[in-house]
Amino acid sequence: MVLQMGSPAPSIKVEDWLRGEPLANFQPGKVYIVEFWATWCELCVAEMLELMRLQEKYKGGGLEVVGVAADEDAPTAVEARTKLDAWLTEKCSHLNYRIAFDYTREMKKLWREPSFSVGIPTSFVVDRDGHIAFIGHPSQLDEILPKVLNGSWRISDKAKAADTERIATSEPMAREQALKQPIDDRFWAAVELEDWKTALWAIEEGIALMPDDINFRLAHAHLLLHKIQDMWTGLPVMRQLVRDAIDKNSEDWMVSALDQLFHPANDHSRLPPAERFAMGKELSEHILPLNPPQGDSPKYRSYPAVARYYHENGNNDRAIELVELALKSLDGSEPIPDELKEHLLPDLLQALANYRGGKVCYGALCAVPQKKASRRG
Fold first, then answer.
1. Using CA atoms, how far apart are residues 148 and 31, in angstroms rounded to an integer?
2. Which helix (H) or strand (E) holds 10?
3. For every residue of 179-242, which 3-state class applies, written as one string?
4. How far is the CA of 14 from the CAs of 120, 126, 248, in angstroms?
């Protein structure tokens, strides 16, 4: 059964309550935000401050916020719970709403899968009569929540149209994710064991099923070039990835391909240098026109990747210029969450210090040049 606006809210079935009093049932007369999030999700973390603000602002109107951590990245429930509890203690000592922990995927089965909610953060708003009033991204809560609280949202044409559009958009993505999940499970199980051949078989099955899935395509190239180190098979795969990225005119695809060729976390010593730099040049020359220096679009995603190509190719001045533009874009006309900024700054400053060959600072944060570690062997 599809979970949508007007559906009775599912029950709350979790293993533990890490913050706040346990919630057994939704109380009539109250409005609830049920928020799915994870500590590794940067957007989720940024939204926590907003949820705290909403809880404080509307607590007199009967609002209760419930955070559900159902996607923590740890091999066991005990490790996930311990990691999550430590993170909450360090980062959110003033949290003013409940946090539930679910490792069994029961909440996913009850809430996210029937509503075609494929990603996080995802917010569910439960109305005063225990029915779903809204499903979507928490950034929409500021507009929608006052209308839910006064009872006008669920009966509005705008709400009905928005939920119809959400289902039409999300259902195909959810069905695709359901097809991918068994493949992803086999792949990550093999990666955990460093069984690269089994991981490769899983990814090749995924590509046969979904040839345009960027994650499968990137994993394919990465396994062949950087894990199995089969250049004979891997180079044609990499060439096709570059060609498809350019043909799609997709910044995400091109940056991801460039990372396979120049990211310092990868060992490039077995790649033919001339072909590697030729592919890097072609990708870089297509990326920059999509996000030109004079434009307002953020530069912190693509410019560091292009800078790595120019730095290795000997054009250090161009590399410095691109990283400086990426840093400048952190304070551009499109503000980014403080948590994301704090995550990006160390790597950007380190790159700039390495390229300049001297100490650089951004506010109180500084970096000094690091000697490049050898990744041969």
1. 8
2. none
3. HHHHHHHHHHHHHHCCCHHHHHHHHHHHHHHCCCCHHHHHHHHHHHHHHCCCHHHHHHHHHHHH
4. 18, 17, 42
Distance CA 313, CA 306 (A): 11
* Residue for token pair 């091999």: 75
The model's pLDDT over 334-359, given as tens digits with 9 standing for 90+, comes to 667 666 778 788 899 999 999 999 99
User: What pLDDT does 313 receive?
Assistant: 94
Cα separation, 148 vs 239, whole angstroms: 52
DSSP state of 270: T
- The whole model's pTM is what? 0.64
Cα–Cα distance for residue pair 124/111, rounded to 1 Å: 9
Residues contacting residue 111 through CB under 8 Å, at least 6 positions apart: 3, 10, 34, 36, 68, 117, 124
Cα dihedral: 142, 143, 149, 153 (round 10): -150
Distance CA 267, CA 262 (A): 9
77 close to 106: Cβ distance less than 8 angstroms:
no
Decide the pairing of beta strands 98-101 and 16-19. Answer: antiparallel
Residue 377 has pLDDT above 60, yes or no: no
pLDDT beyond 90 at 200: yes
Q: How many CB atoms lie within 10 A of CB 86?
A: 11
Residue 217 burial class via C-beta count within 10 angstroms: exposed 0-12, middle 13-18, buried 19 and up: buried
Mean pLDDT of the chain: 90
Q: Of 57, 47, 45, 130, which is closest to residue 88 (Cα–Cα)?
A: 45
